[in-house]
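Lab notes, practical 5.
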Amino acid sequence: MTDDEAIALALAEAQACVARGEVPVGAVLLASDGTFLARNGNRILEYRDPTAHAEMLVLRAGAAALRNERLTGTSLFVSLEPCAMCAGALALARVGRLVFAAEDAKGGAVLHGPRYFEQPTCHHKPVVSRGGDPAAAGEMLKDFFRARRQGLAQNQDGA
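Output from the prediction step:
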């Protein structure tokens, strides 16, 4: 699978989240040879699990597929810049590469916030790059939260 195919699949996973009412974030994990390992989107509400971020779910599935908690040489493709929890999990899993589409100025921890991989306590830093269509990924999130705010406002007006 190519990088472009993987990031497109991550964006498709993010879009599928919208139908489930989840924040639209999707992730895909590839083995070191480019073989597909896992894909998923956020399932926090569905699983009632605050750790059920797309990245965490594919890391778990990838570790199970490889029968190893170390995901050395793998590549993770995500529609949105990972948060601190997910960045920490990437480092602990020794993921080789991280490719993400949209930046997250509020919750991101790679280019924003704590800049997790730049901390002296971070023992592994994946190669980080951008991929896909950041504008489209960002618009998907903006549209989701705009619709959510409108729904809340309508509920408050009707109550």
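Observations recorded by the TA: The radius of gyration is 16 Å. The chain has a mean pLDDT of 94.
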